[in-house]
Amino acid sequence: MTAWTRWCYRHRLVVLLLWVGALVGLGFSASAAGKDYTNVFSLPNTDSNRAYDLMEKAFPESAGDTDTVVWKTDGGTVRDPSVKAGIQPALDKIAKLEGVGGVTGPYTGAQGAAQISRDGRIAYAQVTFNKQAESLPKDLIQKVVDTAQDARRDGLEVELGGQAITRVQEPPQGLAEMVGILAAAVVLFLAFGSFLAMLLPIGIAVFGVGTGMFSVQLLSHTTDIPDLAPLLSSLIGLGVGIDYALFIVTRHRRGILRGMDPEDAVVVALNTSGRAVLFAGGTVCIALAGMLVTNLRFLDGVVIGTALTVVLSVIAATTLLPALLGFLGPRVLSRRQRRRLAADGPEQEQASGLAARWSQRVQKRPRTVAAVALVVMAVLALPVLSLRLGAADQGNDDESLTTRKAYDLLAEGFGQGFNGPLQVVVSGGGTAGLVKDIQGTEGVAQAGALPPRQGVTVVQVIPKTSPQSKATDDLIDTLRDEVIPEAKVQAHVGGATAIYKDFASVTGHRLPYFVLTIIGLGFLLLMVAFRSLVVPLTAAVMNLVAAASSFGVLVAVFQWGWGLDLLGLGKEGPINAFLPVIMLSLLFGLSMDYQVFLVSRMHEEWVHTKENARAVRVGLAETSRVINSAALIMVCVFMAFVLSGDPGGAMAGVGLAAAVALDAFILRTALVPAAMHLLGNSNWWLPGWLDKRLPHLAVEPKEEGTEAVRAEDSVSVVHGYVRTADGDPVEKAAVTLLSKGGRQLDHVMSLADGSYIVSVPGPGSYLLAVTAGTHGLKARHVVVGEGPLVYDVEVAEGDLDAVN
């Protein structure tokens, strides 16, 4: 990393121009090519997929998107001449628009009568476009909406529903991303205190997400990419892009504050935190690739899009960021920090404040902290017992939207099941008897066969219950398991509702294999990184706890409806079937980032001291602030996607925000360190035979330049606490280790809890000197053996202690 980082730093203008050229070039190419996103719910060996294949073969022309215009009159019926005179001209005008294949209304033909409700107050017309919804220009869709709604008048309500209509009621593109970036900017400014430093993570995220989004858009022309992929790509890309840059910039600023030259500080930051970012990005991609285990084609495009955006964000953080840091130099610090550095000289690295006090509290009361954290997580996880997978539809939209109003009008006029008809596709004969049996089935409102073609007949079945109702799921099972076998015909149940049910069923069956895969991969990675069996086992358990709690929050909000009105997210319903796989992948990847960042510092302290309590305390004190800042940024970015206008995106945003918040603020800050205190030295146990066979992986090597303050060829340490006579810890006490001849071997400052650690080159007799401000000087001879020496120092006010 060193040579590459120096090249990027010294050729910063070239690097910046290359990235700007890549962003502009990809953006121009993507704009010229357009979008070709495709939602492919292909579920091999499922009944709905067989029904779809038969329909595609017999009715290949039904390719365009079909939307609905619905109207309701308050007085009289929709057959009244005054109503017809207002609606029919609008329908005729819509039919003449370029891009509209045809309009089927209730006022023409024998079939039209079926498009009027029994009480005559509600009717609908079907608008068939010549392309799928995602490929239609928005101005065409807006013309259809405006033309239909121009027919409104007092006593006549006109609404529109369908996938195409959804596109024109979405918030402005990029609104969610912009709100997330602004919220992250506030957190970064509070963390850094510098406007220029705040801009760095934002800039890296913009370049990473921008190039990723444009690349995904271009890839949509060569492979099946669902329309959810770009939304999730931007959501994850913003989160990881800002977080990864935050880790590196924090380490770089720390190096400058400790007196390093800006170029050397960049090299150290990339050679430490940069390596951790590469490892973290790799784990996120591995977790995303775990979705391929489910063998669900719909998720393949999601994997491609999100993984590509994460990779580009990592590349931006390790190439563009060093270049931008080169432009800023020492201005990456705030003015106050630069003035203090010039006046007081380099700072000593230390942990103090709230983080250090919390770390001490966890060490003193690990059982209490662990118990409280477990109770909180368990309570939040309880709703997951009611988890029901399905699919959100326009019945879950906000009540103010025309799609929700059209959905409710159709349900009012034609029954709740009208918005999700089932299609029983029959190959061969026996249709008449089957239709009669279906009509007599409990839960069926009406059923009728369409004209056959090429030996295939489609029976339209309207359930009595809504598409998201469990009773509709039960009806599908009844048709498949009882009605069709008893009729002795070759038939399959299809339609959107049946497809979503099968998707949920397949996802539920394959989910355990997926969970085992990503948990197993995480266990192996952490075992190699930290040379321990207990640390990765603890991480695996914590990941499962975090998953259960975050899904509990998701069920309470979206399935039970708690807080939906506050968030403006419409009506409650089942959890999207694809969400568990996506959320578990991302939760695994992101939690691995925090786990590595936290435990790597603990592991470093353990290697030096072999004292578990100190390792856990120091690791938590020195990393919790950065982890919490990174998590807060993620939460802001994810919650902003509630504004995306996409129910699936909003659901993913809330779920991931809950998962990250619980993982960082409860698990990594409280439960993990408390558990590690309780487990003691067993945290770091690894059988000797296994240790010899495992490869060595340095997640974050020691910083360059530490040799200046460490004894050469150090084989042991002296560590302990500096306290007053009353037992109070002494912070910022200068602790110096000297040889018999008076040569300084190591020099450190005590932490907020009074702890210190100095390196010793080998067994022997040394001089330990402690200077603590008004407490004076205390010096003692210490004799170090083969292992670490624990030596506490007590200082008194105005004390001066001579060494004999």
TrEMBL record:
Domain named SSD: residues: 182-327
Pfam families cross-referenced by the UniProt entry: CarboxypepD_reg (PF13620), MMPL (PF03176)
Chief localization: membrane
Subcellular location: Cell membrane
Transmembrane segments annotated in the record for this chain: 174-192, 199-219, 231-250, 276-296, 302-329, 369-391, 511-530, 537-562, 574-592, 626-644, 650-671
Gene3D superfamilies to which the protein is assigned, alphabetical: Carboxypeptidase-like, regulatory domain, Multidrug efflux transporter AcrB transmembrane domain
UniProt xrefs under PROSITE patterns: SSD
Keywords, in A-Z order: Cell membrane, Membrane, Transmembrane, Transmembrane helix
Leader sequence segment: none
Membrane topology according to the record: Multi-pass membrane protein
Family: Belongs to the resistance-nodulation-cell division (RND) (TC 2.A.6) family. MmpL subfamily.
Name of the protein described by the UniProt record: MMPL family transporter
Organism: Streptomyces musisoli
